[in-house]
């Protein structure tokens, strides 16, 4: 049995455009984000997708809606869960990234944004995000793939980074260097042997 997993990071949000930390704040797509979502849908047109998953945040849901409309797949089942939400940036959410760097220093902000296990004040590290995303993937999404269903996940830069770390068995050092472009579908072909090898172990 083989199944296909498609991953898409949502299109540019209004706060991405304004260079602000977004995290769990519920900000919709910018006009550019809508265009990117349409392009992503065009790229997946004609592919078989049986079921879709997204976060509880509007920018991911709106991207998914556009993609499914472009593909003519509005009738497939869609599940929304906060486990797929972006990494929470806590006290930084809503702040301009350049102004935050001036306030706390470039080095400190870089550590918050790019380290694996250091969380910003009141927020999550990428490690925290991994330990939130992967159990949901293993317990809820993976059984569909095991049954041969082709799955689409539309989520966020860091929730998808966590998922790609798991699927590709990347180290913390490797994953923090990985960039995930908005609106560019990533495809994984998963066979029974690979799926059966996937087990969640919390990162301490």
Automatic annotation (TrEMBL):
Which enzyme class, named as a word?
A: isomerase
Cite the position(s) of the site with description Transition state stabilizer: 156
Role this protein plays: Catalyzes the interconversion of 2-phosphoglycerate and 3-phosphoglycerate.
Q: Which GO terms describe its biological process?
A: gluconeogenesis; glycolytic process
CDD domains (alphabetical): HP_PGM_like (cd07067)
Q: Does the keyword Transmembrane apply?
A: no
Which residues are named in the active-site annotation? 10, 86
Q: Which UniProt keywords apply?
A: Gluconeogenesis, Glycolysis, Isomerase
Read off the Pfam families from this record.
Answer: His_Phos_1
Q: Which pathway, metabolic or otherwise, does it act in?
A: Carbohydrate degradation; glycolysis; pyruvate from D-glyceraldehyde 3-phosphate: step 3/5
InterPro entries xrefs: His_Pase_superF_clade-1 (IPR013078), His_PPase_superfam (IPR029033), PG/BPGM_mutase_AS (IPR001345), Phosphogly_mut1 (IPR005952)
Record-given protein name: 2,3-bisphosphoglycerate-dependent phosphoglycerate mutase
The protein's GO terms of the molecular function aspect are: phosphoglycerate mutase activity
Q: Which annotated residues bind substrate?
A: 9-16, 22-23, 59, 86-89, 97, 113-114, 157-158
Similarity annotation: Belongs to the phosphoglycerate mutase family. BPG-dependent PGAM subfamily.
Q: Which HAMAP family match?
A: PGAM_GpmA
Q: What is this enzyme's EC?
A: 5.4.2.11
Catalyzed chemical reaction(s): (2R)-2-phosphoglycerate = (2R)-3-phosphoglycerate
Gene symbol here is: gpmA
Cite the NCBIfam families for this sequence. pgm_1 (TIGR01258)
Q: Which residues form a coiled coil?
A: none
